[in-house]
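This protein record is not my work; I was only asked to verify it. Where you disagree with what is written, explain briefly why. This is what I was given:
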Amino acid sequence: MTTFDTYRAAPATNFFSTVLGQLISWNDRRVTKKMLSNLTDRELNDIGLERADIATWSRGR
């Protein structure tokens, strides 16, 4: 399974940086949810997750 480096430096505190940060965070959650949804139940079990965990996690835990 491929891993992705999701490190991002903290942006300056202004409106556009905040919006950009939220957009990046949303996209990271979206991509992760899509990747986890493509796994089989067996693969999810191997990493300690269930299908219901994906939905719970995507709503912000």
